[in-house]
Specification:
single chain, alpha/beta, Elongation Factor Tu (Ef-tu), domain 3, Rossmann fold, six-stranded antiparallel β-sheet, six-stranded parallel β-sheet, 10 helices, 24% helix, 29% strand, binds FE2/S2 (inorganic) cluster
């Protein structure tokens, strides 16, 4: 059956359109004959804001109690520091012995501090902290280090989040909250914050002076929670649903950052609060070892040794690996300079092609896109070998 299609049009539109053609042709005629520039100003600016790598110098080191230090980092080559949003992290790149390693550290300084020329990362000694221990024991004032520019999603989003952030911090997990609270105090972030900071005892509280100063701001309050001692003016115990409800207003976004043990406890408590998913944010924990402790890891596959054939820059290298450790850790042990930033499966910076072999990818840290899953890409930082593998690093 034939159908008539009637297009309604305004005669003025047609005549305007007809006039556009000679006008455009005239523009071409009168245009500059200079060659197209190799680089546009907007691209130069984009590279300044998002450089591929930052060259930094340690300007100062501030001890934080027995087990932590703050490293004040400035640009080594007078280029301005890359800007960031309060709550993001910086990934440092180091060569330790024969290994090339990366580690993300939350920035404790504010975006305004970066505009004034410095970043602050704070490193705490932990029982499994190979890189943190190296930094604490070896990095000196004047040393130079490279880092990937700041990134991360542990940030306040005014459109998505409630007006008040309830922060739950443990140990060195206080650092992103310092940055967020600092940016509230200087007016960069328009929000309120109630911070619950858990530590074993008073001596373990990092940045005590800074937090006490910040809590004088009408939009920031800090509650210290001691697990191992009872003291007037402090809460006692662990931060759970009851304590959060005691201090939280009716509407709030919950931000959580701390050690693994705290995540396991608070994770269960959060369910009791009945908050919508979008109001809960966990800062992700870098993964890499002890895969056999992850729920869902095949029981009979712990501590098995395999080989990985690694394709990079047209060369093939065979390296050893172990099923408990991520493929990224195997790359690093073998001295392969593999890209990585978040180390928790999310940013996609380590994305590589799995050519052959069997792997285990924990569901919780599988941040791959659907197309990547379909076409056999993996994030080596959160992927564990279950057989000999062949992997191509992009
Ligand atoms: S380093 Fe971010 S996904 Fe692997």
């Amino acid at each position: 059956m034939k159908r008539k299609v009637i297009i309604k049009s305004n005669l003025t539109d047609i005549s305007n359109f007809a006039k556009m053609i000679p006008t455009r042709l005239a523009h071409f005629e009168n245009g500059s004959s200079a060659p197209i520039p190799k680089e546009y100003a907007v691209n130069k600016l984009a590279k300044l804001i998002h450089p591929e790598i930052l060259h930094l110098t340690v300007k100062d080191i501030v001890p934080r109690g027995e087990s932590a230090k703050s490293f004040i980092l400035v640009s080594s080559d007078d280029t301005p520091l890359a800007p960031f949003i309060a709550g993001q992290y910086l990934t440092v790149k180091l060569s330790i012995g024969d290994s090339c390693v990366t580690r993300p550290y939350s920035l404790a300084s504010t975006p305004n501090d970066a505009r004034n020329g410095f970043y602050n990362i704070t490193v705490k000694r932990t029982s499994e902290g190979f890189v943190s221990d190296y930094i604490l024991d070896n990095l000196k004032i004047g040393d130079k280090i490279d880092a990937y520019p700041p990134e991360g999603t542990f940030t306040y989003e005014p459109i998505r989040d409630a007006e008040t952030i309830v922060g739950v911090a443990g140990g060195s997990g206080i650092t992103p909250f310092l940055s967020i609270a600092g940016s509230i105090a200087d007016g960069t972030t328009d929000a309120k914050m109630i911070l619950l900071y858990g530590a074993k005892n008073e001596e373990e509280i990092l940045f005590r002076d800074e937090l006490d100063t910040l809590s004088k701001n009408e939009n920031i309050s800090v509650v210290y929670v001691l697990s191992d001692s009872k003291k007037k003016g402090y809460e006692h115990g662990f931060i759970g649903a009851e304590l959060i409800s005691k201090y939280a207003p009716e509407k709030y976004s919950l931000f959580i950052c701390g050690p693994k043990a705290m995540y396991e406890f608070v994770g269960k408590e959060v369910e009791k609060l009945g908050l919508r998913h979008k109001f809960v944010r966990f800062e992700l924990f870098p993964s890499g070892s002890d895969a056999d402790k992850i729920k869902g890891f095949p029981k009979d596959m712990a501590n098995l040794k395999f080989n990985i054939t690694v394709k990079k820059d047209g060369k093939e290298t065979v390296i050893p690996c172990i099923s408990n450790e991520s493929i990224l850790v195997a790359f690093e042990r073998a001295g392969i300079d593999a890209p990585a930033r978040c180390r928790s499966g999310v940013c996609g910076f380590c994305r590589s092609k799995l050519i052959s072999g069997k792997v285990y990818i924990p569901e919780d840290t599988d941040g791959r896109r659907i197309a990547d899953i379909k076409f056999g890409y993996i994030h080596p930082c959160s992927t564990y070998p279950l057989s000999d593998l062949k992997v191509k690093i992009n």
